[in-house]
Inverse folding.
């Protein structure tokens, strides 16, 4: 079922989660182990992230270094199929522009369509760690907007081969990313929202936000989106801070603020166990306010550890 239909049918904020594929060589059981404790809260959908290749240097004989491309967390499409099969819940694969030509994207979407996947989250993806800026594939997409356009075309039965006649349209519900604290490359919020509006006008059906720890940022983001004519659901993304180092790492990696009051509480903690308690309480309080304000769905970034999300879900759903 489409995410937007889940939202339409819901009487209150829905619960959803995002998981990461396991590291290469690990079993799918680790995915089940992280989903199992959350199933009693009936997630409307489970997002599965996509991780592109990275370059690493391996030592070879004679002081030589070989540059190798590896994907540490492959398996997004297979995991989506496995989740839908095991839990009868909608899985939402993240599809990125980075590393994909348009025809590879088309083939991936055809696989997803055949598997009965109804939703995708269309993203640009970040640059490869060794590159300073995002570089699209030759014949790949530059922005998430272009990817949305390709999916919308397929939803109209328009594939890349112009001579293909009577192609059956796909019927994907398309989610895109939004940034309550602005995407780090955007010169300002107005510019970022302008491009978000373009993604929406091109045919996106819902927005999922980057994580934030201060609800006023989400409320202001929704207000500004509505003011420029974005009417589709805006799903808040939430995360429990569980370690002292996470506070600075999350801020650096995702370009988000950690509120002073939260950081002050974390700094008083003597152990990470205490930090996790602070993080859980903070997330419960954020979730309660968002739930009471009528947010369409509360989307939790589990990052491979569902125990903390479980505590939050138990307090809200
Ligand atoms: P875009 O919408 O393309 O925007 C990128 C930047 O370009 C923004 O600054 C925007 O303002 C600007 N821009 C957009 N269109 C134009 C234009 N036409 N001209 C000029 N500037 C433009 N990454 C992964 O690799 N895998 C994942 O699974 C993943 N999941 C995510 C899930 C969520 C909910 C979120 C919020 C992010 C996720 N990301 C993931 C990270 C995301 O890929 C990065 O934040 C990336 O840098 C931007 O992606 P985007 O889709 O927002 O890009």
């Amino acid at each position: 079922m489409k995410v937007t239909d889940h939202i339409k049918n819901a009487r209150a904020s829905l619960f959803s989660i995002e998981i990461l594929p396991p590291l290469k060589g690990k079993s799918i059981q680790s995915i089940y182990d992280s989903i199992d404790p959350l199933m009693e809260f009936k997630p409307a959908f489970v997002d599965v992230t996509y991780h592109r290749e990275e370059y690493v240097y391996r030592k070879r004989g004679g002081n030589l270094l070989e540059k190798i491309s590896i994907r540490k967390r492959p398996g997004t499409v297979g995991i989506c199929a496995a989740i839908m099969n095991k839990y009868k819940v909608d899985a939402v694969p993240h599809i990125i522009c980075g590393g994909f030509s348009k025809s590879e994207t088309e083939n991936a979407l055809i696989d997803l369509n055949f598997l009965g996947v109804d939703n995708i989250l269309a993203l640009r993806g970040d640059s490869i760690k060794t590159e300073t800026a995002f570089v699209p594939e030759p014949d790949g997409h530059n922005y998430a907007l272009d990817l949305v356009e390709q999916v919308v075309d397929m939803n109209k039965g328009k594939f890349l081969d112009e001579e293909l006649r009577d192609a059956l349209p796909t019927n994907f519900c398309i989610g895109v990313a939004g940034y309550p604290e602005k995407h780090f490359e955007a010169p300002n919020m107005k510019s970022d929202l302008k491009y978000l509006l373009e993604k929406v006008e091109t045919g996106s059906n819902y927005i999922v936000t980057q994580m934030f720890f201060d609800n006023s940022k989400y409320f202001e983001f929704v207000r500004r989106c509505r003011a420029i004519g974005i009417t589709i659901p805006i799903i808040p993304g939430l995360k429990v801070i569980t370690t002292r180092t996470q506070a600075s790492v999350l801020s650096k990696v995702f370009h988000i603020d950690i509120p002073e009051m939260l950081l002050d509480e974390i700094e008083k903690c003597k152990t990470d166990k205490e930090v996790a308690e602070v993080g859980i309480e903070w997330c419960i309080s954020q979730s309660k306010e968002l739930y009471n304000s009528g947010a369409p769905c509360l989307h939790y970034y589990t990052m491979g550890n569902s125990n903390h999300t479980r505590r939050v879900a138990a307090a809200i759903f």
The chain has one domain: 3-316. The longest helix spans residues 272-292. The chain has a mean pLDDT of 96.
